[in-house]
Structure formats: structure tokens, C-alpha cells
């Protein structure tokens, strides 16, 4: 009787081990990388729409149309120019931009379109390597009168091509301008309007001394987004993103809990550690 009980326990243990092995294997199915046009490697967290469901992350799904990889942001189409798996960045360009100096983006897209719940970020995860900011803003402005201001380049010679489909601009003459770099309230003249804000990661030497062709070249080059948020998602899932630091007078100080600093020399950061390295911090 004891022998039969022992054999039954051994058999049960063997079955459990086999089931665990099968379960483990099912969660570690290898996915081959995909490719589309100029993008030779599309792998985790990215996936193509036609890839098996277990491959990649659905938040980072790309489509391959006419041998061109594209990504939809806010239902707007952007062509993928490059994916950097080392820096965790993807470079995109508005699908409407053509090789024409008067070809402009169709949709606004700036840092204000991205919040902490979005799968992409407009900044790098840390300041340790290169600039923290990934992109320069490019602002398109229109006015009912000419503006003589050095920060702006006139684009009216493009026959208001950007505004042709907008009925509100077709009835009256509008003078159109573009500016690279951050815009201040004082830069916007009376009766002028901001019509479009986009981004580029082109490394301008001097944003105050550029030509319209350079700006168009930067739009064709595209802008970068960071996808390190997928690392944050992993850390939060594994309960390893709970350390909060304050940044005061150039130094980090452990808070223990999040403290909101609002003065000019105080800011609060939430730092996510995963595998001993900093993956993320956010300024509150």
C-alpha cells in the first residue's frame, strides 16, 4: 500500500512538472523579427498588424502598406524612418510631406499630445547620454498683415497651400510664417493665429539662422519619439517602480513619497529602477 501511494505521488509530481514546463514554454514562444521597406528589423515591442497575436505589444503596432512601415498617432498616419533599439527611439515623418519646399504637415503634433499614459514619450528616459529633449518645435502662424520679425520665415510665396482646404482662410488674405524653436506669448502678434505645431529631431546648428529649405528638410527627416514607456510598463507590472526623489539645487534627495515642488529651483521626480538601472523619471 505504501509503495502504491509513493508511486502515485511520484506520478502526480511528474505530471505537475510536465504541466509547468508546457506552461513556461507557451509563455516564451519565440517570435521572428519582421521587416517592411527601409525598416529591416521590426521586433519587440513593435509588431506588424499581420504578425501573430503573441508577438510584440499591441500598443506599438505598425502597418506595412506599399512596402512602407507606418504608425498611426491620434488616427493620423506617419511613415517610419528608423527604429533605434539601443536608444529606444522611433523616427517618424508626416505621411503628407512631399519632396517640395512648400509641402507642409497636415496635422499638429507636439509635446502636449503626449501624457504619461501614452505609449510614446517626447523625451529620453535620462539625461545621461546626449540631449534630454528629442525634438525642436516648428510653429506655423498666420496673420492678416505682414510681420517683419527675424524669428519668423515667410511662407506666403507657397500660395497658402497649407490653408487651401480651410474655408476660414480662403475668403481673406493671410500672411503665413514658420518658426523653429520655442514660441513665447510675446512672439504672437495681435490678430495672428497659431495654426500648426509640429516637431523635428533634425540637429540645427542655429535655429535663429535657417532657411525655408532647411526647415522643409528637417520635416522630411522627421521627429523622434521614445518608447521607453514599455520598460515602465514592465517595471510597474513587477512592482519595482516606487522610489521617489526630489531634485533640489542640482542634487537628488530621497523623498520616500512623492513631494510636489513648485518653485523655480525645485522639482519632483519619480525614478523607476529595473535591473539596477534607471529607466524612467518624470518631472511633476
Describe the secondary-structure layout.
Layout: H1 2-26, E1 34-36, E2 39-42, E3 47-48, E4 61-65, E5 68-73, E6 76-84, E7 89-94, E8 136-143, E9 153-154, H2 167-170, E10 175-180, E11 193-200, H3 212-221, E12 223-226, H4 229-237, E13 243-248, E14 251-254, E15 266-274, E16 277-283
Parallel strand pairs: 3-4
Antiparallel strand pairs: 1-2, 4-5, 5-6, 6-7, 7-12, 8-10, 8-11, 9-10, 13-14, 13-15, 15-16
Q: What does this 3D model show about the protein?
A:
With 284 residues, this protein is α+β, with helices and mostly antiparallel strands. Among the domains are: 96-226, no CATH class; 233-283, no CATH class. It is built from 4 helices and 16 strands. It has helices at residues 2-26, 167-170, 212-221, 229-237; strands at residues 34-36, 39-42, 47-48, 61-65, 68-73, 76-84, 89-94, 136-143, 153-154, 175-180, 193-200, 223-226, 243-248, 251-254, 266-274, 277-283. The strands form 4 sheets. It has a 6-stranded mixed β-sheet with strand order 3-4-5-6-7-12, covered by helices on one side. β1 and β2 form a beta hairpin. The longest helix has 25 residues, at 2-26. It is elongated, with a radius of gyration of 25 Å. Residues 4-28, 164-168 and 255-269 have low confidence and may be disordered. Keywords: Kinase, Signal, Transferase. Pfam families: GUB_WAK_bind.
